[in-house]
Amino acid sequence: MIRVGLVGYGLGGKVFHAQLIQMAPDLELYAVCSRSLEKRQDAEADFPQIATYDSFDALLDDDNIDLVVLATPHDTHAPMAIRAMDAGKHLVTDKIMCLNESEALAMIEASERNQVLLSVYQNRRWDGDFLTLQHILAEGILGDIYTIESNITTYGGPHVGWRAWKKYGGGRVLDWGAHLVDQALGLYGPTVETVFADLQYRYPKDKADVEALALIHLRFANGVRYFIELGSAWMYAKPRYHVRGALGSFRKYGIDPQEASMKSGVFGVLVPEDPARYQLRVANDRGQTVEHPVSPLFGSYRTYYDNVGAALVHGEELLVKPEECLEAIRVIDAIRLSAEREEVVKLI
Prior knowledge:
- By secondary structure, the protein is of the alpha/beta class.
- The protein contains ten helices and 15 strands.
- The chain is globular, with a radius of gyration of 21 Å.
C-alpha cells in the first residue's frame, strides 16, 4: 500500500484528489498538509485517521509517506515537486505541470535523478464526452477530420484568489487550457506543427491581470485544425466540442457532469449524461444527411489514481507520463509567445 501525503486542501485537494486517492485500491491517504488551521481541521473531519501538517518540510520529513500530491497554486508546482522528489518521494502534481519548459525539464531530471515516479493529474482525459469523442473518431464515421473546436465559454468576471494573477500562474490558458491542450495532443500528438493565439485582457486591473478571453489555433501534421476558445464573455455558451469531417459533424454541449457530482459530495459512482447534449449528423450512401444516435460513455476520474497506484505497486504502465506533459507545456509556451508577438509560432 502506497501512503500519500496531500499538500493543499482547498477545492482541488478536497474535491478532486483526497476522495479519489482514498478510493484507489493501492493508495492510502495518510496525511494532509495545509498552512490553514481551518483546512487541516476540515481534512481531519473528512478523514479522521490521517495525520495533518502545517508545513511542507514536516510532511517531507515523514518517512511513512511514499507519494506526495500537490494541489497548490501553479507557481509552486516545480519548486515543491523537485524538493519532494529530492526527498525520495514519488510525485503527482495537479495540472498545470508547471509554468514553462525549463521548469518541466528540471522536474523530469529530478524524477530521473531520484528514480521516482512523476505524473500530472490530467483527469479530463477521462471526461465522458472526451471518451465519447475518441470513440466516434476511432469509428471513422465522420471521415477525414477537418476541424475540431474545443471550448470552455462562460459569462462572468475573473476567478477569485490566486487564479486571477499572472505571478501565481493564473489565467484561463494555464487552467482549462492545460486540459484542452492535453486532450488535443492525446488525439493528434505527440506535438503540433504551428500555433497561433490571440489573448484579450479585459478585466479591471485591480481585479485581475490575466487574460479574459483566449482564441487558440493548433495545426497538426495530419492537417487537422484544432481550435480552443476560453473565456468569460459568453451569455450563450459555445458547444463543448464541434467536429467537422468529410462525411459528418459532431457537436456536444455542456461539460462532463463528474465535477458537479463531486462538488455535491458524491464520489466513485458513474454519472450519466443526457444524450440530448450530443448531436451527430452524417451523410448516407445517397448523399443525404441523417441524424445518428449517440450513446454517451461514462467518465471515470478515479482511473487516474487507480493507475498511479497500480504503476507503483504492480508495475503497470503509467497513463499520464511526464514527457507527454512536457510537450503540452511546450505548446502552452508557444501559445503565450504567439499572443505576445502576434504571429504564428512553428514547433516542428
